[in-house]
Specification:
binds adenosine-5'-diphosphate; alpha/beta; binds magnesium ion
Length: about 250
């Protein structure tokens, strides 16, 4: 699934903004190419900032991708803000914004301003309204000076800011970010982390190896070999992860 189809398929914001911000995962298993990569996952999440940690290959990305329908469960049910993901992927896509590790995977247009504008296509907004929203968002993300720059000319940190801006301009109720700071230097990682923790959507799920970032969330999930092995206050979950890795 490319970012392009995802961005253009949805009818956009306002999709049931009165719905709850509860995520319900009920006895989920995921098989990919005949391999069971997640199993026995059940959890209900009402917190606003949720961290997901665990070793490489433990199933974190698969879990993240369940939440916007990029991956389908082979068993069980995923309900995001009242929407059954298997039944109504379009409604879920409207509600959930996904931020990838590699910003190149989701920057689709030649220039910064065009890329953010693309996210607002198909919402019935006038050109002037789109221009106004895009300009405001670029200002907020420190990209105004690069509006007409080719996206490829941006630094890694600026590219991730652009990717985030293109997701956030649609005002998703849930943001799922899969290792959004892994490729960034300290300053840019901090900037993206601050945006995710302090400023963004009603609900945010951050998959990360940055344990300080995990500690800033309200709750943390630990995955180990395809199972969800802890759901608790982040400090306790980080300690458990450290012991597991020792
Ligand atoms: N398309 C796929 N087909 C088969 N196995 C996969 C596929 N995608 C991921 N996996 C396997 O599933 C496991 C969990 O992967 P992933 O969710 O990406 O873990 P993490 O994000 O924690 O590193 C890994 O062992 C990985 O190799
Ligand atoms: Mg991953």
């Amino acid at each position: 699934m490319t970012g392009r189809t995802e961005r253009e398929s949805g009818a956009g914001r306002g999709a049931g903004s009165g719905l709850s911000t509860s995520i319900e995962i009920d006895d989920v298993e995921v098989q990919l190419n005949g391999r069971r990569v997640l199993h026995d996952v059940s959890v209900r999440l009402d917190q606003r900032r949720i961290a997901v940690i665990g070793a490489n290959g433990s199933g974190k990305s698969t879990f993240a991708r369940l939440l916007n329908g990029l991956v389908a469960p082979s068993r069980g049910r995923v309900v995001v803000h009242g929407i059954d993901v298997a039944r109504d992927r379009r409604a879920v896509r409207d509600r959930v914004g996904f931020v990838f590790t590699h910003p190149d995977a989701q920057i689709l247009m030649p220039t910064v301003v065009e890329d953010v504008s693309l996210s607002l296509r198909g919402l019935g907004l006038s050109r002037a309204a789109i221009a106004e929203r895009v300009s405001a968002v670029l200002g907020e993300y420190g990209l105004s000076g690069h509006a007409d720059a080719p996206a490829y000319s941006l630094s890694g940190g600026q590219k991730q800011l652009l990717a985030l801006a293109a997701v956030l301009v649609r005002e998703p109720q849930l943001v799922v970010a899969d290792e959004p700071t892994t490729l960034l230097d300290l300053g840019n990682a901090r900037r993206i982390s601050d945006l995710l923790v302090d400023r963004l959507a009603a609900q945010t799920i951050i998959v990360t190896h940055d344990l300080d970032l995990a500690r800033r969330c309200e709750i943390a999930l630990l995955f180990d070999a395809g199972r969800l092995t802890a759901v608790d206050e982040p400090g306790a979950v980080v300690e458990r992860y450290r012991r597991q890795q020792a």
